[in-house]
Amino acid sequence: MQQEKPLWIPSAERLRRAPMSIFMEAAARASGRPIADFDSLHRWSVEEREAFWPLVWDFCGIVGERGERVLVDGEKMPGASFFPNAKLNFAENLMKRTGAGDAIVFRGEDKVERRLSWDELRALVSRLQQLFRAEGVKPGDRIAAMMPNMPETVAAMLAAASLGAIWSSCSPDFGARGVLDRFGQIEPVFFIAPDGYWYGGKRLEVAEKTKEILAALPSVRKALIVDYLGKAREAAASIENAEVLGDALTLYEPAEIAYERLPFAHPLYILFSSGTTGVPKCIVHSAGGTLIQHLKEQRLHAGLEDGDRFFYFTTCGWMMWNWLVSGLASGATLLLYDGSPFYPDGNTLFDFAEAEKMTYFGTSAKFIDAVRKAGLEPATSHDLESVRVLSSTGSPLAPENFEFVYRGIKEDVHLASISGGTDIVSCFVLGVPLLPVWVGEIQGAGLGMAVDVWDDAGRPLKSGKGELVCTKAFPSMPIGFWNDPDGEKYRSAYFDRFDNVWCHGDFAEWTGHGGIVIHGRSDATLNPGGVRIGTAEIYNQVEQLPEILEALCIGQEWEDDVRVVLFVRLAEGVTLDAALEKTIRDKIRTGASPRHVPARIVAVKDIPRTKSGKITELAVRDVVHGRQVKNKEALANPEALELFRDLPALKG
């Protein structure tokens, strides 16, 4: 049943001050037509892309030469070219601000706390740029980092981008094989690693792993070891051709940074698919496309302004890190956290928010769920007055967690559930500061994004579940995949399903409010009796139960059909008995539908997830069916897969 009352409505003052409102007035002037609400603004943005994207460029103050042409071959996907004559530098746009104010505030659990001013960040980037240049780094070279989310990582990325080099990163908790599966494909000339990192209060040294990785990366000319645990010199001494970053920088004094202005489509980042079904795809993103898309999302949809204090809980192996660092382009201070968000307890991130007057608090749906289940109520334990936006991504945010945010975290906050992906290094659907927040719904499509939901025959669905698609080209589409010269892998990934239309692989549904619900990955949808069911619909019901900490659902091939199997991780002291099974089934039957009710419910001690915290339904499905999981290194806890092999409960 459609909820009749929104959870939150923006105040008149919020609406007046919102950058999106100011942009809407500029759009009305530029277009010569009335644009008085978000729907008309969005319609104009996708119908008139050649007017919309230049307005974003000007409104967000992009530094560079825009050129005359805006869009060439705009009806081709892939093949469209945005701003084909433009010249810019990504780092130059992130380094506009100067002064003694905070550019970066860093916390490494409760072990390390540091601040870099804008001038100190600029000095560090300058010295890194000089180091890279002295070592012969040129446009198009790859610089790879296996790094914590710390200031040196941001500075090294900016120095690489200033020269037109291509940046690629992962987090130091990856195994050696997982790192090589990624960086081995792109042949970096530089490799940056820490001496170790903190997680859950434990020191984890990585020198031996770094040595193993470098032995298999012959393209690397130099390795830089960043001091985090106080062991950098010792680590560097044990690794051939490695030097402590601090020592290497002593040769260089801060100087003016020389920015290499390059074409809009010049490569900036190589990101990687999760890789749980094979070697990760190497997705190449452009400097211009990434910049203009992130500025549009952060300035207009997130309302980010100069002086804001911007946080997203992420590692350097997740695209949200790339999204977060772009906040510098809006003059925001980056609040970086590395380590466990539950060390020493679940208050850690809220402590950070209160202490640093955080204005944008970004996290995962799983984190919000864990806070609720832990019985925490930051609304009463913390002063979160400064927090204007609370953002959630990584997996669909369950309806009860929408309600918990307003009950248990903050009553007057813009809850922005967002969804997109590594594939576009940005969002298809996200928060809209001019609209109410309704329980369980993402507010709307991104400006300039021709998002729709289609059935299997390629027909738009005004209601009902279908494939999330984008019917027109947009600037942050990948340039392509690395080592895919004819583009076949790229086309196959997104355009095989519907010709000339991006098919994202999410199972989605429009709501009566014009919002959208993501029901999970479409390749993980269940098909009992030929009816498609989104796994998120089941999780939304099951995870409301206090006995269930987490759930994972698959379709098991059974007797020429598919049956729904639900795996549950139970709260401490809870046993999966007949009474609890009945409670689970009743909850799913009444909250979703009888078709969603699992044929089997199985308790497991752990659920496998990727390094970015997403549960891996496809990997579990492969194990249950006796198929090989091709890339266990992509998982944070690969040992958990063995819990699903040859389960007696699934034999009959």
TrEMBL record:
Domain Acetyl-coenzyme A synthetase N-terminal: 39-93
InterPro entries: Acac_CoA_synth, ACAS_N, AMP-bd_C, AMP-bd_C_sf, AMP-binding_CS, AMP-dep_synth/lig_dom, ANL_N_sf
Catalytic activity, EC: 6.2.1.16
Annotated organism of origin: Chelativorans salis
Gene3D superfamilies: 3.30.300.30, N-terminal domain of ligase-like
Pfam families for this protein: ACAS_N, AMP-binding, AMP-binding_C
GO molecular function terms attached to this record: acetoacetate-CoA ligase activity
Protein family per UniProt: Belongs to the ATP-dependent AMP-binding enzyme family.
Name of this chain's protein: Acetoacetate--CoA ligase
Keywords: ATP-binding, Ligase, Nucleotide-binding
Enzyme class: ligase
Domain AMP-binding enzyme C-terminal: 542-614
Plastid as UniProt keyword: no
Residues annotated as domain AMP-dependent synthetase/ligase: 103-470
